[in-house]
Design a protein that fits this description.
single chain, 6-stranded parallel β-sheet, elongated, disordered C terminus
Length: 253
């Protein structure tokens, strides 16, 4: 029996490393959204399961003993599917989610979704959108006439308004680099989602230094009743608590 890690994050890769080092049986799952994903150690499957039913079938057919949903805080679809599939199959589920960012300036504008973020951003004149490719459509109309810098990992498959500039980049980002980017583009408004973590935090520190207005999209809620931890250590501890299905293969301390 094996552990299924729903991945696509640094935490998922770190957990895979811990399980690998402890000789536990596990499989990581990636959605297959990016062309050259950072791969975790160990066995990896790539691609959707085909909704809740497909994921439940996968849990049964591969004898999954526990699922750790270590997907991105904004990957609400797969988290909801995992909660329902685990409920149906009786497989224990843990949500591993890095803590959100804290506003040390007390000035961030918190919004509930990307539509609200777009309305708030339209009050600026030079906007940096770092909310990712998937939700870009929400900003197209409200910011059509704004000078807008968009940073995405993968190339876009649609046109953007002529005032927009698209840069392709993948974190981690440095404070120096982010400061330069904000300055070079005369950014007065930064839009981000509350991804949390250190890898993409520098833009917030640069924005604080330069007095750039920050709009942050709140995280979607974790599905009700799903136990949640904020660190890889706690996730490994949970797997130890629920017990291995195959003690002969397990050497976790
Ligand atoms: P999503 O909207 O929650 O999921 C949409 C569909 O993609 C799911 O229903 C599932 O398809 C498939 N899927 C998602 N994660 C999967 C995984 N780990 N393994 C297998 N199938 C998966 O997800 P998303 O926001 O598009 O994110 C996709 C992946 O990128 C996630 O794994 C996430 O960790 C990573 N990621 C997301 C963000 C973000 O901002 N959303 C940022 C960084 C990384 P089926 O229904 O067919 O099973």
């Amino acid at each position: 029996m094996t552990v299924l890690i729903l991945g696509g994050t640094g935490e998922a890769r770190a957990l895979a490393r811990v399980l690998h080092n402890n000789a536990l049986d596990f499989e990581s799952s990636l959605a297959g959204r990016v062309r050259n994903p950072a791969l975790p150690v160990g066995q990896v499957r790539i691609g959707g399961f085909g909704g809740v039913g497909g994921l439940a079938d996968h849990l049964r057919s591969t004898a999954v003993r526990a699922v750790v949903d270590a997907t991105h805080p904004f990957a609400a679809g797969i988290s909801a599917n995992a909660a329902e599939a685990c409920h149906r199959t009786g497989v224990p589920l843990l949500r591993l989610q890095r803590p959100g960012w804290r506003d040390e300036t007390g000035t961030w504008v918190w919004v509930d979704d990307h539509d609200e973020a777009a309305v708030a951003a339209a009050a600026g004149s030079s906007v940096f959108l770092s909310t990712g490719r998937q939700t870009l459509g929400r900003f197209l109309d409200p910011l059509a006439a704004h000078r807008t810098l968009v940073r995405v990992v993968e190339p876009l498959d649609h046109d953007v308004p002529p005032q927009w500039t698209v840069v392709l980049a993948r974190g981690p980002y440095t404070l120096d680099g982010e400061r330069n980017l904000l300055r070079a583009n005369a950014v007065d408004t930064l839009v981000t989602k509350d991804s949390g973590g250190a890898l993409t935090r520098a833009k917030l520190d640069a924005a604080a230094e330069l007095g750039v207005r920050v709009i942050v999209v709140r995280r979607p809620p974790v599905p009700e009743g799903v136990r949640t931890v904020g660190s890889v250590t706690e996730a490994a501890e949970w797997l130890r608590e629920i017990g291995p299905a195959d003690p002969a293969r397990t050497r976790m301390p």
